[in-house]
Write a structure and sequence with these properties.
By secondary structure, the protein is of the alpha+beta class. It has two domains: 194 residues, Gcn5-related N-acetyltransferase (GNAT) (Aminopeptidase, 3-Layer(aba) Sandwich); 166 residues, Gcn5-related N-acetyltransferase (GNAT) (Aminopeptidase, 3-Layer(aba) Sandwich), CATH 3.40.630.30. The protein contains 14 helices and 13 strands. The chain is globular. The termini are far apart.
Length: 387
């Protein structure tokens, strides 16, 4: 699925079509999420998603920006919890289809929270780039009769607060902003040389809680998942991940854990993959990527029946912190969900905004009213560190 290039944009149906000089000119490969190896791993392992890519160019045909597009069938029945009422209202107002999935074109990473959809080269007019991107997305859909008929809505995801003065240009293209669950972020104190230093910086109550979690999880053995042993643990990890995915109130897609094999092969030690074992049983796993000076937590899997007794999830959070400190990183991005427990280990919320537009004008106006009611789930922010 591809369309004719314009004066400002080039369109690609697969990553393999993009010339290597484009990556070099953009200078985007320092960011793991815009490295062709990362993007290729997602494309290769998710055949149910239609992947496309836009390279924006200047009047000399030099690349100025890159955008990753995905077309998915979003199952409205997968929306649970706080979104249930909104989903039902949306169906009654015919903003969402009754029986078939919503055909959604997304600019962003469907599996990871954060600004991973658009890369803008240095020294560019970012507001102008966002406008060009919106126009290019319209051209991409409108130039294909089949696609024009199929697509229900457009979503550009996960802009941080400091980017809103740029991304708000999308309002001129009838996109509606709405707040989503925040990314929970922990800044790693440069005085923390090891995990004991981290514990020492905590108030007594939270330090006691951490030590209790380590005591409860003492029988758990944590093992590196490597290319040598991944075949053995991957089916067990997949079963645990599916339980977590079912519990989520909102999912843009199911992640294929076979992707881990590629990511481990391409990124080596910079891709974190660990399994948690209780005797002979796999009871959890963590995954994540080291991206510049940050560790980004990706998916986890948990045996919920054993979680409370053995403090599996809490141990995972501390494990991420141990890794970030040992690698001398500056930030740890825990991602969305479970905000309160993440705040109890020191993470603070980083607000994220998405932009949504329905293809049909009247439905899009109704959608605006609907989105004004979408709010992140409130939680009690904990402050575990000494002042």
């Amino acid at each position: 699925m591809c369309c004719t290039n314009t004066n400002t944009a080039q369109f690609y149906a697969t990553l393999d079509e993009i010339p290597s000089k484009i990556w070099k000119t953009l200078g985007c490969t320092n960011n793991s999420y815009f490295h062709p190896n990362f993007l290729k791993s997602l494309e290769k392992n998710h055949p149910e998603i239609t992947f496309s890519y836009i390279v924006l160019v200047d009047d000399k045909k030099e690349p100025t920006a890159f955008a990753s597009l995905k077309i998915i069938d979003f199952e409205l029945n997968s929306i649970k919890n706080d979104f249930e009422l909104l989903k039902n209202i949306g169906r009654k107002l015919h903003v969402f289809p009754d029986k078939k999935p919503l055909k959604l074109l997304i600019c962003g990473n469907t599996f990871v929270s954060g600004e991973h959809g658009v890369f803008i080269k240095e020294n560019q007019d970012k507001k102008a780039i966002i406008k060009e991107l919106a126009e290019s997305i319209n051209h991409f859909v409108n130039s294909d009769k089949k696609l024009k008929k199929q697509i229900d809505a457009f979503l550009l995801k996960d802009f941080a607060k400091e980017s809103l003065f740029i991304s708000d240009e999308l309002k001129d293209f009838s996109y509606h902003p709405f707040s989503v669950e925040p990314n929970m972020k922990l800044e790693i104190d440069e005085n923390w040389q090891n995990f004991d230093d981290y514990l020492a910086s905590m108030k007594t109550k939270f330090r006691v809680k951490a030590k209790k979690a380590f005591k409860q999880s003492a029988k758990i053995k944590i093992k590196e998942v490597t290319l040598e042993n991944i075949d053995e643990v991957l089916p067990k990890m997949t079963a645990l991940y599916e339980k977590v995915a079912l519990n989520a109130g909102f999912n843009l897609g199911i992640f294929n854990l076979e992707t881990y094999r590629d990511l481990k092969e391409k990124f080596g030690e910079n891709y974190i993959l660990k399994s948690y074992h209780l005797e002979d049983k796999v009871v959890g796993f963590i995954s994540g990527i080291i991206n510049k000076d940050s560790l980004d937590a990706h998916f986890v899997g948990i045996d919920y029946q054993l979680n409370r007794e053995h403090a599996i999830y809490q141990r995972m959070l501390y494990n991420y912190i141990e890794i970030a400190i040992s690698k001398k990183l500056k930030n740890l991005n825990f991602g969305r969900t479970a905000s309160e427990i993440k705040s109890s280990v020191g993470a603070v919320p980083q607000d994220l905004t998405m932009y949504l537009r329905h293809k049909k004008t009247i439905k899009n106006k109704i959608l605006k009213l609907f989105l004004q009611r979408v709010q992140p789930t409130p939680f009690q922010q904990k402050f575990p560190f000494k002042l």
